[in-house]
Amino acid sequence: xxxxxxxxxxxxxxxxxxxxxxxxxxxxxxxxxxxxxxxxxxxxxxxxxxxxxxxxxxxxxxxxxxxxxxxxxxxxxxxxxxxxxxxxxxxxxxxxxxxxxxxxxxxxxxxxxxxxxxxxxxxxxxxxxxxxxxxxxxxxxxxxxxxxxxxxxxxxxxxxxxxxxxxxxxxxxxxxxxxxxxxxxxxxxxxxxxxxxxxxxxxxxxxxxxxxxxxxxxxxxxxxxxxxxxxxxxxxxxxxxxxxxxxxxxxxxxxxxxxxxxxxxxxxxxxxxxxxxxxxxxxxxxxxxxxxxxxxxxxxxxxxxxxxxxxxxxxxxxxxxxxxxxxxxxxxxxxxxxxxxx
Length: 342
Hints:
Layout: H1 2-11, H2 24-31, H3 36-41, H4 45-70, H5 76-81, H6 86-100, H7 105-110, H8 119-143, H9 146-162, H10 166-182, H11 185-192, E1 196-197, E2 207-208, H12 209-223, H13 233-239, H14 243-256, H15 272-284, H16 303-320, H17 327-331, H18 334-341
Antiparallel strand pairs: 1-2
Helix pairs in contact: 1-8, 4-8, 4-15, 8-9, 9-10, 9-16, 9-18
């Protein structure tokens, strides 16, 4: 949730980010034209999760479209008809990762003269980077790849620091430091392997344990917490041990009355026509076609660099002012954690 809010604060919250034709808000006007107000105010997790997935797919398809045009193909369909091999696809994918996703070369791009820069292209490759980082983290959590999750968390620490979510960044950093340098091996093993839970026992359905805690709070405080004058702290404490019994009784009644086929989970919508409409718009307003001198109303900062500088500055200030710093905290940092993970 914190990661999607960081992306929202970076690409949608500032009013200036909505002025360019290649901005994310214009993708929303085609993907969900009736919900632009929700995304401009403060959308929830589900809205941003869908946006990152759908907009990310369309923008990556545009990267493929731009590249295959240089190879002599007019469209992705024509490229698919040529029946490329898996090795050909891997070569193109590696090229796109190096050229359409922000990396160390972005610093050199930003140092060029204004008439040689394409600021909207720089913003687009930063968006691709943050979306891919989020999708990688989401995939690793759904699959319960603990080591992969820990590795994915490392770049999000400075990102969260840069967008103002200092508590999240601090607690994530403290958690990784404690798990890898402070806790005993058996305690470390217990924490890492109980970090995610799978209530439905289905593949790719692992969730953070705090989701189950929040669901239990919903049952305890809202659903079975009493109403009116009965809603008191004493009543909630009295009923809390029976929450699971109530839930089991409700499930048993549903099964007896054959209501188990009813669900509020709908199938994923068919977005092919919407994706084609967005791809058509990218033909005239592609963020991935480099144009020298193209300016932007808002230049997206590199949040990883910005957050890292902020963290280093805070550490230097603590040392200069002689504040009490734990020996473990002073001796370990993000680089140490990353070396341990790799």
